[in-house]
Each structure stands twice: as C-alpha cells, then as structure tokens.
Design a protein that fits this description.
Layout: H1 6-16, H2 25-33, E1 39-46, H3 50-64, E2 67-74, E3 80-93, E4 98-105, E5 121-131, E6 135-143, H4 152-162
Antiparallel strand pairs: 1-6, 2-3, 3-4, 4-5, 5-6
Helix pairs in contact: 3-4
Length: 174
C-alpha cells in the first residue's frame, strides 16, 4: 500500500494557491492585493526607461523561468517523496505595459478542477509600465508557493528590472 505524505496531500492546495485566485493573472493580482499569509504584492519604481526594462524582463524570464524542478522531501523513518514541478513563463509586451506571468504545474497531480489552466496556476505576475521617459513602475504579485521559495522569483524580477543582477533564481529549494 502506498502511503501519502503530508506534502502529497497539500500539493494541490499549494499549486492552486488554496483558492481560485491563481487561475488567471487578474485573479492572482486580486488575491495578492488583498494580502494574506500565502500572497504578497509589491510596487516600486526603477530608474530605467520602460523599453529597457521590458526587454530585460522578456529575455530573463525566457532564459531563467522555464524550469523543471524535482523536490524531494523526507518525513522520518525513511519516508520520502519526490514531486516534479514545471514552471512556464510567458511575457505580454506592449507599448504601455509589459506583463510577466509565471505558471506552475505538477504533472503527477491531475487537478479535479477543470478550470486550472493547462500550464498550471499563476504563481507570479509582474507588471511594468512607463513612468515618464526614464523610469518604470513595477507591480509584482506573487503566491508564496513552494516553488517561488517565498520570494526568489519576485526578487529576481526586481533585480532584472533594476538591471542590478541578471542571474537566474535558485528554485531548487536548496
């Protein structure tokens, strides 16, 4: 008989954000704006022109956020489980705004809710908009999901927007 770990039982809730808020970018924005233990929202301004920020966000999201991460958790007495998590980024770029979306799915988990998007729940949405000619306003909404390592993805986005660190975040959990 296969034993289910607490992690396995909680995985569906953690992926979907414990609610339907992460099923669309607007849903995550709304949920994260309301605060709560599992979500956060941050607004900041960077001293870089919007077009530069948008190009950097698009390049770095495609390079760094399309990942397959295997998480292994052990619970004592030799009981361990592995879960594969797949992140899929997408970028919507326009003249007046750029959006970075990051979705998360676990192929081993088949959601009973058919409304969950094919690439999984939205765990991070970042909006960039011009503020004058030399500044960009960033609004970042994120689920404190198991893969986002609480702030790894939002912090990477902040560095990319500022142009201070173009490295990829460590999402392996180690």
């Amino acid at each position: 008989m296969k034993r289910l770990s607490a992690f396995s039982l909680l995985l569906p809730l953690l992926i979907t954000g414990c609610a339907t808020g992460g099923l669309t970018p607007d849903g995550l924005r709304s949920t994260a704006s309301g605060g709560g233990v599992m979500n956060f929202q941050e607004t900041y301004e960077v001293d870089r022109p919007y077009n530069e920020v948008a190009k950097t966000l698009e390049a770095q999201a495609k390079e760094c956020l399309h990942q397959k991460v295997v998480r292994r958790a052990c619970y004592g007495m030799g009981a361990c489980s592995e879960t594969t998590l797949i992140l899929t980024p997408s970028v919507v770029h326009g003249e007046e705004a750029t959006e970075v979306h990051v979705q998360l799915r676990a192929p081993e988990y088949t959601p009973s809710n058919e409304e969950v998007p094919e690439d999984g729940a939205y765990i991070t949405v970042a909006d960039a908009a011009p503020e004058g000619t030399d500044k960009t306003v960033m609004d970042v909404y994120s689920s404190k999901s198991i893969i986002a390592s609480k702030t790894a993805i939002p912090n990477a986005i902040k560095h990319w927007a500022k142009g201070t660190n173009l490295g990829c975040p460590n999402l392996s959990g180690s």
